Amino acid sequence: MVIKRETVTLEKDCEGHLVPVGTPVQLKAGQEVQVTQSLGGNVTVNVNGNLVQIPAPEAHALGDAYRWEPPEEASDAPLKEQVWEMLRTCYDPEIPVNIVDLGLVYDCRIATLLDGRTRVDVQMTLTAPGCGMGPLMAEDVKKKLLTLDGVDEAGVELVFDPPWGRDMMTEAAQLELGLL
């Protein structure tokens, strides 16, 4: 769901992170914020001219309309498909396109560990290498992967070779962003 420019009054205190630096901030109940993006459970808001990403577990502070539930799993779908669908619920806090279509996911491997458990490892990059939101985006990916039945461990590595370029985006993503 994408909601543009809706003003909301926070119902309770919550934590967020300044975009793009990633610095933690505390938002207070009763404070008015302007929602600029609500995708994959995380909500990006404008607070006094600053963008702040409110992570999915805190987004209920904006009201019930912002509660996020992981997508229902199709138990008959192969785990690989479920993993890629979950990756498509992860977004850059400034860009309303998922990280898969943005071309940020370079590699995704599923392995069976010696004890029979399953581990998913993702290599991903950022649109800008110095983005302070990178570790937060990686943690979002990891947490979401761990919600899948059949995923026991997950790891996300941020890599910057090759450097990300606009040509890595799908045509649909470029169209969505008005680049075609």
Structure, described:
The chain has 180 residues and is α+β, with helices and mostly antiparallel strands. Helix content is 15%, strand content 29%. The strands form 2 sheets. A 6-stranded antiparallel β-sheet has the order 1-4-5-6-2-3, with no helix packed on it. A 3-stranded mixed β-sheet has the order 7-8-9, covered by helices on one side. The protein is globular. The mean pLDDT is 92.
Using the CA coordinates, give the radius of gyration. Answer: 17 Å
CATH homologous superfamily name of the largest domain? Answer: Fe-S cluster assembly (FSCA)
Helical proportion? 10-25%
Number of domains: 2
Q: Mean pLDDT across all residues, rounded?
A: 92
> What summary fits the major beta sheet?
6 strands, antiparallel
Determine and state the CATH class of the largest domain. Alpha Beta
In N-to-C order, the SSE pattern is EEEEEEHEEHEH
How many H/I helical runs? 3
Please give the order of strands in the largest beta sheet. Answer: 1-4-5-6-2-3
CATH arch. level architecture of the largest domain: 2-Layer Sandwich
Number of DSSP-assigned strands: 9
Q: Which topology of the largest domain does CATH recognise? A: GMP Synthetase, Chain A, domain 3
Structure class:
alpha+beta
End-to-end distance: 23 Å
Beta-strand content bin: 25-35%
Low-confidence stretches: none
> Which outline best applies?
globular
Q: List the quaternary state of the chains.
A: single chain
